[in-house]
């Protein structure tokens, strides 16, 4: 028998917790098509849970109830993990137990009402419009790497793409004339992002002047757009170093991450009148609830402006 998840239902024969975890992770890869990074996060969180079960001597899922799950979360908090981490592990357990219940491994789901709210959730960091303009305008460095770095930062801010999406861009994905780029996001979902004229100019200059020089470093003949100084396709770690270095020079203070530019992109769109659904589409969020965090950011900025400007604030 096969469930709606596309996974064989093994109604007979108990599987150990570790075996069920293995089946769940395989399901995330084969059926849900989640990214390796996301699957690795699930694996780490479930490893903490199975370690807890080993310590209390439980290896049969049918013996796990709501109280035991609450004990695990309390244990994680006692051991000093951040509330956001414990909340993420709570969500992981809900996904796992929903899976094993759906496939008939246990008769009922003990995690149905399991929650762990994150108090005082921090709003994502973002740049002001003058700071973003200063960073995106970049330095006047005319080296091949300087031209590449300007194109990277322009694209991250102009499109809101993730760092992994930027690293995955191929030459054929770019339409400079139309100002659009095809990217592959989480779950291998494709979408089209938009780039304004400053980003198009920076990218065009990089493709014409700098990329051919970098490619010659190791006779690279592939189609990855962004290359490192030795001519190989760039990786997310290198992009993070580029953004961090440029931010320290051009904006000052602590360095920034590529995700900060993604936050900045979304915040500036909403602050200037874009509707939430459009921003969701541009960011590639599957659920609009994920995008709604940016409405809190813009409201906070409005409140700050009110408090500092209104005579009776």
From the 3D structure, determine the CATH topology of the largest domain.
hpI Integrase, Chain A
> What share of the residues does DSSP label as strand, in percent?
under 5%
Task: Give the number of helices.
Answer: 13
Q: What order do the helices and strands follow? A: HHHHHHHEEEHHHHHH
The level 1 CATH classification of the largest domain is Mainly Alpha
Shape: globular
* Spatial separation of the terminal alpha carbons: 64 Å
Strand order of the largest sheet: 1-2-3
Mean pLDDT: 86
Structural class: mainly alpha
Q: Which architecture of the largest domain per CATH? A: Orthogonal Bundle
Poorly predicted ranges: 1-13
Number of domains: 2
Q: Please tell me how large the radius of gyration is.
A: 23 Å
Summarize the structure.
The chain folds into 2 domains: 86 residues, DNA polymerase, domain 1 (Orthogonal Bundle), CATH 1.10.150; 181 residues, hpI Integrase, Chain A, CATH 1.10.443. The chain is 56% helix and 4% strand. The chain is built from 13 helices and 3 strands.
């Amino acid at each position: 028998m096969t469930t709606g998840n596309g996974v064989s239902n093994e109604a007979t024969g108990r599987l150990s917790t570790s075996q069920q975890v293995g089946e769940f992770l395989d399901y995330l890869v084969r059926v849900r098509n989640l990214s390796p990074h996301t699957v690795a996060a699930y694996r780490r969180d479930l490893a903490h849970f199975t370690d807890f079960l080993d310590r209390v001597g439980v290896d049969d899922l049918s013996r796990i109830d709501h109280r035991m799950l609450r004990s695990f979360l309390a244990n994680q908090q006692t051991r000093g993990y951040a509330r956001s981490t414990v909340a993420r592990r709570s969500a992981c357990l809900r996904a796992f137990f929903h899976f094993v219940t759906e496939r008939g491994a246990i008769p009922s789901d003990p995690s149905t009402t399991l929650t762990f709210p994150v108090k005082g959730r921090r709003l994502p960091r973002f740049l002001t419009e003058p700071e973003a303009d200063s960073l995106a305008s970049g330095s006047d460095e005319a080296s091949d790497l300087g031209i590449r770095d300007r194109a990277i930062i322009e694209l991250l801010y102009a499109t809101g793409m993730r760092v992994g999406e930027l690293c995955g861009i191929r030459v054929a994905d770019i339409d400079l004339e139309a100002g659009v780029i095809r990217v592959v996001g989480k779950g291998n979902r494709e979408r089209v992002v938009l780039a304004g004229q400053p980003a198009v100019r920076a990218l065009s200059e990089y493709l014409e002047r700098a990329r051919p020089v970098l490619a010659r470093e190791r006779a690279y003949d592939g189609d990855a757009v962004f290359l490192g100084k030795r001519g190989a396709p760039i990786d997310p770690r290198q992009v993070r170093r580029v953004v961090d270095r440029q931010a320290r020079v051009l904006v000052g203070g602590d360095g920034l991450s590529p995700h900060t530019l993604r936050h900045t992109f979304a915040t500036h769109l909403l602050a200037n009148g874009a509707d939430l659904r459009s921003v969701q589409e541009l960011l590639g969020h599957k659920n609009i609830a994920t995008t709604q965090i940016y409405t809190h950011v813009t409201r906070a900025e409005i409140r700050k402006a009110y408090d500092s400007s209104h005579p009776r604030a």
